[in-house]
Amino acid sequence: MSSEPVFQRVVIVGLGLIGSSLAHAIRRRWEQTTIIGFDISRDVMDRARKLDFCDDIIENPIAEVEKADLVLLCVPVGAMEEVGKIFGKHLKQGCVVSDTGSVKGSVVRALESHIPEGVIFIPAHPVAGTENSGPDAGFAELFEERWCIFTPLAETDESAVKKLREFWEGCGAKVVSMDAEHHDLVLAVTSHVPHLIAFGIVDTAINLEEVKKSEVIKFSGGGFRDFTRIAASDAVMWRDIFLHNREAVLEMLNRFSGDLDGLRKAIEGGDADSIEDAILRAQIIRHRILEAGEDTKEEDFGRRKQ
Ligand code: NAP
Question: How far is the CA of 75 from the centre of ligand 1 (A)?
C-alpha cells in the first residue's frame, strides 16, 4: 500500500525498537519517502544496514538533517537534550521535529531551547511497545490501532500538527492531544508505576532466601511470569523514564502504596469483603479494557506476529 507521502525526506535519530518500527511502517505505507537513519552506536548502524529498513544510514547526518522535512527523535529520554543540541541548529525552516519519548514534560524542556524559529516542534509519544529493544525488535505493525499522544505547545502551527497526525495515522496509529503534564500523570499510572512494580517484584523474588531461584523459575506460571516479561524491558530507557518523570511517578507510587497498605490491613484483619471488592473493581477495569479493544484475549496482543 503506497500513497502520496506526507513527508518526502525523514531522518530518524535512534534506530532501536521505535526508530526501526517507524522506518518499517513508513516503508510499508509510503514507498517514495526517503528514510535516513542515524544511531550513536556503530553496531546498531551496522545491524540496521543489514536489516535494510532505511534508504541510507549515515554516520554524520548533519547534511541530511538540513534537507529533512521531518526529523524523528527516537532516543532514550535522557539523550534528547544532547541530540537537540547537536542537530537543532541544522534544521531547515518549515521542518517538523518530533520525538517518541515516553515522558513529555522533561523532553519539551530539554528540546525547546534548541529548536530554531521557523521549525515546528511537536512532542509525541506512541503508546506502543514491547519488552524488546534494538533494531532487530522493530516491525511495521507496532503502531497499528495504538494511541499516539501529541502534546503540542499552545503556539504550535495547526497545519503542521494536522500533517504529523496524517503521518502517524498512516503508520497505523490513532492520535490524541493533551498537555504534557497531564500525559506524564496518566502514563505514570498506566505504564511507569506498573513497570516499577514489575522490576520490584522480580527483584524481591530473586532476593528470597527461603525460596530457591530454580523454584521461582519453575513455578513462574502463577502471575510472576507476566511480571518478568515486563521487567525484561530496556534498562537505560526505563532508568531515564523514572528519573525524568520523577514527580508524577512519586505521586502515583505514594497513592499505590496507600492502596496496597489498605489491602495489607484487610488481609491482616481477615476483612474478606474488602479483599473481594478490590478484586471485583479490578475485574471491571479489565473488562472495560477488553471492550475498548485496548487488549484482546490473544496472548501476544500488540506484539510481533511470528
Ligand atoms: P532502544 O530500542 O533502546 O533504541 C534507542 C536507540 O537510540 C539505541 O540504539 C541507542 O543506542 C540510541 N541512542 C542513544 N543515545 C543516542 C544519541 N545521543 N544519538 C543517537 N542515538 C542514540 O529504545 P526504544 O524502545 O526504541 O525507545 C526510543 C524512545 O521511544 C525512548 O525515548 C522511549 O522512551 C520511547 N518509547 C519506547 C517504547 C518501548 O516500549 N520501548 C514505547 C514508546 C516510546 P545505544 O543502545 O548505543 O545507547
Answer: 4
Q: What is the DSSP string of 211-259?
A: S-HHHHHHTTTTTHHHHHHHHTS-HHHHHHHHHHTHHHHHHHHHHHHHH
CA 47–ligand 1 middle distance (angstroms): 15
Bridge partners, 175 (sequence order): 148
pLDDT of amino acid 295: 86
Residue 125 CB coordination number (10 Å): 24
Residue 18 CA: nearest ligand 1 atom is 26
Distances from the Cα of 9 to the Cαs of 55, 118, 215, 244, in angstroms?
A: 10, 18, 53, 31
What is the CA(279)–ligand 1 centre distance, in A?
36
Q: State CA 239 to chain mean position distance.
A: 13
For 142, phi and psi rounded to 5 degrees? -50, -40
Q: What is the dihedral of CA 266, 268, 269, 270, to 10 degrees?
A: 80
Q: At 187, is the pLDDT very low, low, confident or very high (cuts 50, 70, 90)? A: very high
| DSSP annotation of 94 | T
Average pLDDT, integer, range 68-73: 98
Distances (CA, A) of 138 to 59, 88, 132, 161: 21, 26, 9, 25
Look-up: residue for cell 541548529? Answer: 89
- Minimal-distance CA residue to ligand 1 atom 4: 16
Burial of 135 (0-12, 13-18, 19+ CB in 10 A): buried
Q: What is the chain's length?
A: 306
